[in-house]
Amino acid sequence: MGTRLPAKLWLDEVEDSCMSQIMDLTSLPFAFKHIAIMPDAHAGKGMPIGGVLATNGVIVPNAVGVDIGCGMCAIKTNLKAEGFSYTDLTSIMSKIRAVVPLGFDHQNKKQDQELLPQGFDFEEMPVLKNQYEACLKQIGTLGGGNHFIEIQKDTATSDVWVMIHSGSRNIGLKVANHYNKIAQYWNEKWYSEMVSGLAYLPMETQMAKDYFREMNYCVAFAFANRQLMMTRICEAIQAVKPETDFDPMINIAHNYAAWENHFDQDVIVHRKGATRAYE
What we know:
Keywords: GTP-binding, Ligase, Manganese, Metal-binding, Nucleotide-binding, RNA repair
Binding site for GMP: 146-150, 254-255
Number of domains: 1
Strand order of the largest sheet: 1-2-3-11-10
Mean pLDDT: 95
Oligomer: single chain
Cofactor: Mn(2+)
CATH architecture: Alpha-Beta Complex
GO molecular function: DNA ligase activity; GTP binding; manganese ion binding; RNA ligase (GTP) activity
Number of strands: 11
CATH class: Alpha Beta
Pfam families: RtcB
């Protein structure tokens, strides 16, 4: 397949493997308008992490990625960095480790079901209906890889912030892999001209509708996951620094797909390691 669309790059140097994936994206027959590549882009599974792909009428599971809904949240405190001692920090980190499981660890006991996203029917979600118990033990857990909890200092103001990077844990992985395998199977069955790692599902099919529903649950779960961790982290900070107040939480996801209107056309925009820009 040859290049169909331009790619807009917000970086000067691109590794060869990433550039190869960018060229693949520009050749997709269902890609819309242009491909957008962010400053920190690097090769991922099928598509660069730090890439944005808009499509006409199809959804691509690997263009969202396996950690569906992964994102960042942050809260500003009323504290100044100068008010923290080494003992304060070590005590806070110890308390956080006691209430937020890390790495592959899950909760020792099921969490309250009210902490899970509401408004979804598990019976309408083929993958997640078998993961309900897992959801109750994965909510409020960090995960591994590049996920983190940080207590940060604003170098300009000395304000103390709390930041979390985490996603939908193992349930997002299961949803992503399940529907990518389905997409691969049907693309081969339809003799579709398919770029490696970028199998797709037409949006009018039940398979695509099921993926879209389960993906949206994972996005909501990832937000609820960060929210619960942040609540428990704030409680840990207040246990050591009772005078702490917190601003409202800022949250944004960077692995998802959504219907959006661009250039007067409704398209599915896939963001993988990228966030939407707002005026």
